[in-house]
Amino acid sequence: MTSKNQEKYPAQEPSMLQKVVDKLEKAGDVVQSKLEAAGHYLESEWNKHNFGPVLNNFVTGYRIQLVSRASHHTLQIVEGPSGQLTLDGKGEIGAHAWNAIWTVVNDGNNQVQLYNNNNFLAIVNGEPVVIQVDVFQGNGAQIGAETKFQLVLNGDYLVALQSTVGPDRCIGINEDGSLKTAQICASSSVNSLFGVLLIKNPENAQLEDKK
């Protein structure tokens, strides 16, 4: 059986402006069909102890999709022209889009790490990237601090992913689905906001298996 670690990520599509199609309604009550504009910047200490319905999805082991407020598509891993894995905000919504599903590691204080297979979401030198770390192969690999994000809540249904290394740097998506440079992406920006769709709750799956 071929594991997902051996699956080939889809090729990156050329960046082009396209008509925004609202797919957020398909996400049910987790993602609102009408999203409000970004609010004020939330300070660090408040972020660590804040609570909102969207944060219920960031539990270790949960598998989620991040639906961009700007592009109305999901944050996904794709293969760039050079063969290197990269990110964009053009992914599909749904469990079939395996390259747009992120597994959560919650480190407490509303700080998380997100990975797809062994590829961790990170911000390095001001740019959103994926870092491959074979932490599940028993080789002693360490996950760097650049993979840790502070969850910045905006309302009850939107969240930004802010670097814990560079507090003014966030994962951001442009309207056409291309990446926004993290150095100019504040957590209060529309480009930084994501709705969250819970794809799999391992606890519920275990209950279903016992029925």
UniProtKB/TrEMBL annotation:
Protein name: Uncharacterized protein
